[in-house]
Amino acid sequence: MEVTDRVHVVAHGWEVARVVDPLYKLKADKIVLVLPDNEAFIPDFEYEMIEELEANDRIEVETRTANLYDLDSALQTITQAVKDHEEDEVYINVSTGTQIAAIAGMMAAQTSEATPFYVQITPDDADEDEVWTPDEPIFSTSGEITELPVFELQGPSTEQLQILGFLHGNDGVTKKELIEHAEEEELPFIMNTEAKSDEGRYRVLDSHIINPLTENEYITVEKAGRKKEVSITQRGIDALAAFPLDSETMEAVENRPDGDVREMRSKAFNPDLESMTSRTKGHHAGLDDSSDQD
């Protein structure tokens, strides 16, 4: 079996801890450090950090350069680094570097299978005399205004989110129960269908809900005796946290004992270390209840 490396892509940003600590916590095998093409921006402590990393036999160090104040330059360098390691497990550390570098990192992640992550700081723990604030604006003048490209996030449809919300509130649901729920909630996919038979409604459920949600790993369908049970996955829960929910879906989610949406969103956007390091190279009363369909 081919073994892949965990590769971190990170931009220079006058920091050490938020570059180095994730390498060890996330068990990285390699770091691609994007340095400014103007060496005057690189302080001595960053050179020392690079030397210490290079002295570590376990972590491979590669450096590349870019203009980290120019989106095209930063994006090209980061996306190329991701592309060059597409057979590996790539993580983009957007904690350091310029704001442009962070934007470029997120854009590179959206157009690839790389995982972006952010390392938080703890300024509230600092003593008052340890907090530094500038006496003057960091930059005295402004430059050219650049419009940023927007990538549309393709998530589940509104009615698919409603089904996910229902699944999140009910563990192990049959297809029959999903159709009954869809009819009770008057979801468009079931209300607008011309299918009159049970078999026809199952086909509509499969084409509009089950198949797309399964293909995107939002749900699983497993046999339980003569029946098939549909369950929401962690990715499905993350989708409920990431995308806007209508009132009915929100109510279904909040009805669970662990259904605090704010907490769900915090977990979705701040995954634990174990999940990041364990990845490898993801009502109708007469409705027929046959084992084939539900």
Q: Could you give the topology of this structure?
A:
Blueprint: E1 6-11, H1 17-25, E2 30-36, H2 44-54, E3 60-66, H3 71-84, E4 89-93, H4 99-110, E5 115-117, H5 158-169, E6 173-174, H6 175-184, H7 188-191, H8 198-215, E7 219-224, E8 227-232, H9 234-242, H10 247-254, H11 261-269, H12 273-277
Parallel strand pairs: 1-2, 1-4, 2-3, 4-5
Antiparallel strand pairs: 6-8, 7-8
Task: Walk me through this protein's architecture.
Residues 254-266 have a biased composition (Basic and acidic residues). InterPro entries: DUF6293_C, HFX_2341-like_N. Residues 254-294 are annotated as: Disordered. Residues 6-120 form the HFX-2341-like N-terminal domain. The chain has helices at residues 17-25, 44-54, 71-84, 99-110, 158-169, 175-184, 188-191, 198-215, 234-242, 247-254, 261-269, 273-277; strands at 6-11, 30-36, 60-66, 89-93, 115-117, 173-174, 219-224, 227-232. The model is unreliable at 280-291 (pLDDT under 50). The chain has 294 residues and is of the alpha/beta class. The chain has twelve helices and eight strands. Helix 3 crosses helix 4 (99-110), helix 5 (158-169) packs across helix 9 and helix 9 (234-242) crosses helix 11 (261-269). The two termini are 37 Å apart. The protein folds into two domains: 6-130, Rossmann fold (3-Layer(aba) Sandwich), CATH 3.40.50.10770; 158-277, Winged helix-like DNA-binding domain superfamily/Winged helix DNA-binding domain (Arc Repressor Mutant, subunit A). A hairpin with a 2-residue loop joins strand 7 and strand 8 (227-232).
